[in-house]
Amino acid sequence: MATKIRRLTLATGWLLVTFVAGLPVFGVVLGLWLSPPISWEQVSVFFTYNGLLSSVLSSLLLSLLAPIIALYVAFTVYSQYRFNPRWQALEQRLAPLLSLPHLAVALGIVYLFSSGGMVWSVLWELFGSTPPEWFGLGRKSLLSMLIAISIKEVPFFLFIFSALGRQLAIKDWLLQGRALGYSESASWWLLVFPTVLKQSRLALLAAMAFTLSVLDISLLIGPNIPELYAVVLYNWQTGFTADEQAMAFLGNLLLLTMLGVLVAAIYTHEWFAIKRIRTLAVMANPLKITRLARIFTAWLGLFSLLTLAILLTFLLWSLGWNTQSPFSAASWSTTLWQDEWFFMQTPLLNSLNIAFFSSVLGVAITLIALELQRQSKRYLPDYVWLLAILLPQLSMVYGWQIAHTDMSASYSTAWIVLSHLPFTFAYSYLVLRGPFQSLDRHYELVAASFGYSYWQRWWQVRFMLLRPALLSALAIAFSVSVAQYIPTLMLGAGRVSTITTEAVAIASGNEQSITAVYMLVQAALPFIAFFIASVLAQRLRGSFDAAHQ
Amino acid sequence: MVLLLAALCVPSVAIGNDALNDLNDSQASQLESTKQWQQTLATARGETVYFYAWGGSKPVNDYLRWAAREIASRYKVRLRHVKVADISEAVSRLKAEDGSKSAIDLLWVNGENFSYLKEQKLLLGGLTSVIPNSTLLATEELSLRNDFGVPMDGFEIPWGVGQFNIIANENVFAQMSITPADILSAAKKQPGRMSYPRPPEFHGTTFLKQLLVALSHNDERLFELATPEAQQQLLPTLWNYLDKLHPLLWQKGSAFPSSNTEQLALFQQNQQAMTVSFNPNQISKEQDEKRIPQSAKRVYFEGGAITNSHNLAIPKGAQSPAGAKVVIHFLLSELAQERKLNGSWGDPAVITPLLDEVSTLPAQQELHSSWQQMIEDTWQQRYGA
Fold first, then answer.
1. pLDDT (tens digit, 9 = 90+) per residue, B57-103?
2. Which candidate from A227, A324, A512 shows the least CB-CB separation from B293?
3. B66 lies within 8 A of chain A by CB
4. Residue B240, phi then psi, degrees to nearest 5
5. Topology given in CATH for the domain delimited by A1-30+345-543
6. In terms of pTM, does the model score above 0.80?
7. CB atoms within 10 A of CB A452
8. Which segments of B177-259 does DSSP mark as H helices, in order?
9. A409 to chain B, minimum CA–CA distance in Å?
10. Does B291 touch chain A (CB under 8 A)?
11. Please, what are the domains in chain B?
């Protein structure tokens, strides 16, 4: 009887997990199934599309470099902050730094630092002149995009490292490093970095997939001669002629191939990096990178300053300030806030509601997926679980929409929660897999020897030790749910509007004052989630914090 | 096409307009009293109408909030504006629904999206004959029978009119009407300050169409199917011109604004000296809000401004078609059209009682739709990478 129940539970568990992790494939297959047949002529038209190669190459370059730069910067920052009092400050401030939407960061950076941007104008004005035309970031260029995304992803990686670090015996490794005669910063790179790099594969892949397919930032600050690949693909996908549909189909296949290239690049980079580190370790060469590391102690200050500058810019915009009138003569008013606040309340509540349920469910199902794999002693490849992040969202959701319509289903919040679930699941898997797998089994063995049952061990040891990582996962999943536009609109059909469906639609009009209002409110939700998570996380301690502090 | 030709120029029929108005008004009120319309009104009571419309403009959103209040109190119909970033999202939904029960009751559409929906038979027809206020439409005066060369045939109802114009700093153009040569010399005078939205963005393509018409001196072949010979003879002048213009543009033509709204933002931030618009009243609305210099000027192409309408359509599978018809009826009323024109949106009216020849720009006929794809593809081929 007991085995039967056990088997039944296991089967149900696998069924549930397969369902959620498989939804993306289902959507893509159903969405592409209905494509018109493709002729060879269309294939040749596709490959001779002017600028295709340069679009693909610049998108690949960007998606490869920006996350890797962010990862290196984040690791250096982490190594400089982890074991000193400033770590507390950094952890506390990660919340606001993480919660600014990508679009807001991109808009802010370009507005402040482009040629003729605010910062340069103000600086030069101090000396009574105007900055030269060539000075500053391009309004639309690969470099601006690279810088904006690299800057924006650093707090994301720090967040991942902070969750990882609670499970790794970093302090011991550094001690061992010292015993071997390495300096502390050399030990960070030689001993800690290889492990962290391996454990961050998923995060790296998620950041790369995001960069590859992000549309709004690409349109706004990306180069457009040639356009980035995401924009080219979007133009095909929103076209309705048979030719455009054929291009969109082939374009999606190409996008998947590009993802494959990025996955290969992650492993190649890892291989090279670790080989290089091994060589350096054997040669006992002083690491050049460690000399630079000191500079990164300034990161928290600089990044906070940047975030404040962006927030301030948005706040001023939302109060009616613009470039036309001098600062003192601007017509300040809070009318916009008062007008919009009335209409924002329902979308805000909807967002909270949907994000709460989809993040809690997403994290719970992630735990089930991890536990099932632990029991079967075989972990499936990561990409199987991360399909929601990796597959093209537009095709995926289009497939879901067809299924949803065919079932004549209602347009209720429950369906939206279901459509967010694959995404919250994938991101919580991303955050939780490392901590879950590297959790010291010793504690559970000890508990077992005291006669704790399986469930008792699970709840009172494993779950408790995972709590900090669980909080991180919840916060990330929550903000991922808040940020969903396409699934919310397509399955909610406008019956359920969220702050993001409103904000994205409004941002498409490039009206700075009202865009600023919605961006600020939109940023507030993840801010609250990250803030609560970081406050709670500091009270709880993870397994290694408990053991090593 | 013939109809569109007939309505090429906006005629100056100031006399007789009143008589026409009275006629239209009485037609409208006659239709309103029919049993069929009373039935529609009765069915519509208590319905909720989900109106899919671009949500990127605060003035438009505010206008629809006002309309929703009015419609609720007058007809007991609830109007809900479903804001989308791009109306193709609504078209994609209709495609997925494939004519079955639809989540959309009403949508704001024109051009290729309309053409696709009509061709796929996804729209409710016969709107003109059932909506009383559609008799007020200034069909002849504003050439409202076709949408980019596709006959509307009652599958959509005009809501407003767009006329292509350029808003520029005062020192850019000397005249109110301009030629391609004026643009080139302005770009020479102020290198790096002029640009246009990157085609295939709709405003950018229209800018190229205006240039092509002007450069080929209004060649008749532009209004017919684009034959290979016509292309070979007409298009090179445009490319030669652009070859000269692009190096003088913003970022030396190595980047373009992604849309008209982005170019407007760049103009507001004084990064560019001009922006393009389809709303002839946009300049005064922007100046009222003090977002662009008071000295800025609106100019249009010498041969006339390419003019088209933006329209309202009801999907075949709409759940509240009666409610949607009532909403259209209200949006075409004098009250609603007047508010649209004189409120913060400033979108020109489409009904005869509010026709305003003074502020209407001379109209330029749309090119045959086959030219659009040609222009966009060749542009991509020559300048896209």
1. 999 999 999 999 999 999 999 999 999 998 988 998 898 888 888 99
2. A324
3. no
4. -60, -40
5. MetI-like fold (1.10.3720)
6. yes
7. 16
8. 180-189, 202-215, 228-245
9. 10
10. yes
11. 11-155+309-360 (3.40.190.10), 165-304+365-383 (3.40.190.10)
